[in-house]
């Protein structure tokens, strides 16, 4: 008899949550077609989708089964029904929720069942549970480990929101290759690129040449220009956009280039402007050594950049790391520029495949459409 490895997400926010989950685990273990392996620790999480309801308890279970995916899915539905699951509107409270997360390395896209679960890569409580069993477990669609997927979320839980602009922001040091990558992506998504207006800033060449008295003018030029580009009222809901910068870099550069007096003025202006922008649904954080970035800067030979030195790039590199250590706005995919070969379609398509699973676009459904809510 062929046995399969399956992972189940368990959760609930009504009644005695712990007891209900334990009962569901017992019912799974008692099924003659299932060999129960184990269950992760319980994790309490806030309800998703902005719902006003009690917090959830969640866990992940591993099991071996002789059932096929459809039959196992039916077992989960039957257990939910026996434990009082009410199937109301999306994001409604429930006594128990049992989701088939993974079944071997299968990819299933059927009206009644999607495997891998199409939202699991957006849930830290799911990924941390899977990591308890096997952090090297590979997501069959994304082709990366659950450990890496968990790191992208930084402890957060996210939902796809089609009623918001689908802004993908590419971040990283000067010279790391942000614009080069941005230019490659519209061929796959048919979307617009929002370019950083470097060449339009009349103050920046003088600032890099040492005229610090113009640094505030330069930063305010960038601030107002980027707010104009990323204004949430101007970006269309559900439409994909790619920017070759992340708006939050504004404070990184302001703190690096402005005097204390200039910075105090700038910070007083920054907050009301920043409140107008559309936040990214995904960040691509490109990384390379400051030395390699400096070599690219010299190679592309933009006159106003030739005064940039290695110490400045090292400081920016540290500041970007600090920014994304505490980042909670969206998932962050880290990309090593040294491992990115633009002449290798397979390499670029791997990144594109990742992106498709984090944005809402009816034309691209690499991670499937949700069969259950989680």
Give me the strand/helix succession: EHEEEHEEEHHEHHEHHEHHEHHEH
Q: Terminal Cα separation, in Å?
A: 31 Å
Which sheet architecture does the biggest sheet show? 5 strands, antiparallel
Approximate helicity band? 25-40%
- The number of helical runs is 13
* Beta fraction: 15-25%
Q: Give the total of beta strands.
A: 12
Instruction: Give the domain tally.
Output: 2
**Which CATH class of the largest domain?**
Alpha Beta
Mean pLDDT: 92
The CATH level-2 architecture of the largest domain is identified as 3-Layer(aba) Sandwich
Radius of gyration: 24 Å
- Could you list the spans in which at least 5 consecutive residues all have pLDDT below 50? none
Structural class: alpha/beta
The CATH topology annotation of the largest domain reads as: Rossmann fold
> What spatial form do the alpha-carbon principal axes imply?
elongated
CATH superfamily of the largest domain: P-loop containing nucleotide triphosphate hydrolases
What can you see in these coordinates?
The chain has 13 helices and twelve strands. It has helices at residues 17-30, 69-82, 124-133, 146-153, 178-184, 186-189, 204-208, 215-230, 249-257, 260-274, 290-300, 310-325, 345-356; strands at residues 4-12, 34-39, 43-45, 56-65, 97-103, 108-110, 113-115, 166-171, 192-194, 240-243, 282-287, 332-336. Strand 6 and strand 7 form a beta hairpin. Helix 8 (215-230) runs antiparallel to helix 9 (249-257) and helix 9 packs antiparallel against helix 12.
């Amino acid at each position: 008899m062929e046995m399969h490895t399956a992972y189940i997400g368990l959760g609930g926010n009504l009644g005695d949550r712990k007891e209900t989950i334990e009962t569901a685990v017992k019912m799974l273990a008692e099924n003659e077609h299932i060999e129960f392996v184990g269950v992760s620790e319980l994790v309490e999480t806030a309800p998703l989708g902005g719902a006003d309801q009690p917090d959830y308890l969640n866990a992940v279970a591993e099991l071996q089964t002789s059932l096929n995916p459809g039959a196992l899915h039916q077992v989960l539905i039957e257990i939910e029904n026996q434990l009082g699951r009410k199937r109301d509107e999306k994001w409604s409270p429930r006594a128990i929720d049992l989701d088939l997360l993974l079944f071997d390395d299968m990819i299933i896209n059927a009206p009644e069942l999607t495997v891998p679960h199409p939202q699991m890569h957006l849930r830290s409580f799911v990924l941390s549970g899977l990591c308890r069993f096997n952090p090297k477990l590979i997501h069959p669609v994304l082709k990366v480990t659950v450990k890496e997927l968990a790191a992208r979320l930084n402890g957060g839980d996210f939902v796809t929101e089609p009623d918001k602009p689908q802004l993908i922001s590419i971040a990283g040091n000067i010279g790391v290759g942000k614009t080069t990558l941005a230019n490659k992506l519209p061929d796959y998504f048919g979307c617009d690129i929002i370019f950083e207006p470097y060449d339009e800033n009349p103050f920046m060449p003088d600032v890099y040449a040492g005229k610090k008295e113009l640094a505030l003018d330069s930063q305010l030029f960038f601030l107002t220009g980027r707010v104009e580009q990323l204004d949430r009222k101007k970006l269309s809901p559900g439409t994909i956009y790619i920017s070759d910068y992340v708006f939050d870099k504004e404070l990184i550069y302001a703190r690096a280039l402005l005097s204390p007096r200039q910075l105090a003025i700038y910070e007083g202006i920054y907050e009301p402007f920043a409140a107008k922008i559309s936040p990214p649904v995904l960040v691509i954080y490109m990384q390379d050594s400051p030395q390699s970035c400096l070599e690219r800067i010299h190679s592309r030979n933009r006159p106003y950049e030739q005064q940039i030195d290695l110490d400045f790039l090292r400081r920016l590199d540290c500041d970007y790391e600090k920014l994304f250590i505490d980042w909670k706005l969206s998932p962050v995919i880290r990309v090593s520029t040294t491992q990115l070969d633009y002449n290798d379609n397979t390499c670029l398509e791997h990144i594109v495949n990742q992106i498709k699973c984090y944005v809402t676009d009816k034309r691209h459904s690499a991670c499937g459409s949700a069969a259950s809510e989680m």
